[in-house]
Amino acid sequence: MKPVLHYCHQHFNLISLASLLLIIPLLIFPYNAFPHLALGLALLLLIWHWSGSGGPKIRLEDIPLLFLLGMTLLGYAISIDQSLSLPRLWGIILGLIIFFILRNALSAKFQSDWMALVLVLLGLSMAGIGLLGTDWGQVRLFDLPGLYKHLPTLIRGLPHSNVFRNDDLIGPRMVGITMGIMAPVVLPMLAWHKRPWLRALAAIAFLLMAGTLLLTQSISGLLALIAGTFIVLLFVSRWFLLLIPIVLSAFVGLVMTIGPETLGTVLLSVEDVGGIGVVLRLDIWSRAWAMLWDMPYTGIGLNSFDAIMQQFYPGYLLGFTPDAHNLLLQTALDLGLPGLIAFLWFLISWFVKVIKGIKKEDSLNNRLLLIGVTAGVVAYLGHGLIDALMLGSKPTFLVWVLLGVGAALTRSQETKPKPKLYQWVLAWLGVPLIIGIIALIRPASLYINLGALQAHKLLSPFPSAQISTQADVEPARMNLEKAIEMNASLRQAHLLLARIDSLQGDFSAAQWHYKLRVALDMQDPVTNYNPAQRLRLFLNLQMPQEPSAELGKIYRAWNIRYPNRAEGYVLNSILASQYQAYPLKAKSLLEAGIKAEAQPPGLLEYMLRNN
Fold first, then answer.
1. What is the pTM of this model?
2. Engineered SS bond to 186: which of 202, 256, 259, 360, CB 3.0-4.6 Å?
3. pLDDT band of 145, cuts 50, 70, 90
């Protein structure tokens, strides 16, 4: 027994790395006890590591990741649907486990050829899964039936993959983003590695990933590939920085040649394939900003974007939308501003260390690895400008692999002195201080944040939710009313109070809050709800209309999308009677809602009797 224990202690790092082969699938497919087994194994490794290193030790660079973990747990706790949030919780925990195991278990003593081989094989395997498991019917830009119908789709019905059986293939968007992140990683090995067999394998991997990316027709994946490739070129020569002004000049020249109006007409048109992508993104970002404005400290809950948007922040044209289509916005919505700050803090410190490591590294192979992982992480951030492979989604374990490899290769170069006390104090108090400053600038934000979270749980699913007791309502009502007392222009606070009053049968109070909501919406409906229209007006592509007409289009869109909500008929009726001077139209709208049996019952009858 003793020789076995001695062998295990001597080869702890190797055992930790091997454990990842078990931990990763158990957390990517979190079925029943699988994630708990993986977490237990990770904790055993952690305790074992502490026992051999003299107890728990927290490094200065670990603090942002601890904040990230804390906000992840909070994001799960506040979610209105924890079944949606749980896979993301396990996904983020998996990423942190991967990072810490790789950072601590890998070292420069490991053959860098093996590390490079693993990254190349990861890219190859992801490309293979993408080719065999993508639903090519979802490809949107160019329809090539002669090609796509001959592509095999062998990966069907993955057990416990959190994908519905009737839609069990992978979306091309996610596959394209993954290819765009991983393809730049192998470029340095392809170009300069000393081993011919590894160069050849990297070339095959790159071609397969790039080809799969092109098949997905993913614009965000292409952006990721371009961003990562640009980083690789920068390490070849700083002269490639000239590409930035050249590309910008070419873009300006193209705009001037085509004309801003013509270009705007195409890019802001819902009739154009590219234009609908721009218009919908503007709509999504508008809703995301509105959520973040109301709930900056906690976010809305892990993986809750579509649920919160559909029930509480409907867009003008939006149907099902899984995320905010911007990585930083989505991270802030999932983890709150503290989580976003921690994420950016970690990334910045990682980039600083890796770039310094590339300059100091004597080994060509290690340098190529560092350049590759840097390119992959930049590609991830590059795609995040117009899309969001949110933290905790299945492919992001690859990003944590890249981060862990980069941290491991630079760890051996660390020669910093022990951090001073003031550095520890700043590290622990920095995020709370920033959040405290925001709270001082916007004191009402604390109350709207807390009140909105409480109201979301009370009102979900809307409009069929039922409020059981007055005690359930009071905390949310108190916080929302306090927020309005400090800032009367908080549109969402009025809407949530109106819904609470409606469900409690206090239709008079509900009507008052709905009227205030319409009055606030009238101040600038285009900017608040239709940013694409704001750009059209700026470019003189359309003539401005009366605010009531613009708001009417938005309210009608909501009413058509959610005909079972009495609220839509109420808002349209108030707008018609008070701002458009159409009393008969206001009455007919309420009658239409009654006929449609819109919920909650009684609200429309009350409005009809008292208007």
1. 0.92
2. 202
3. low
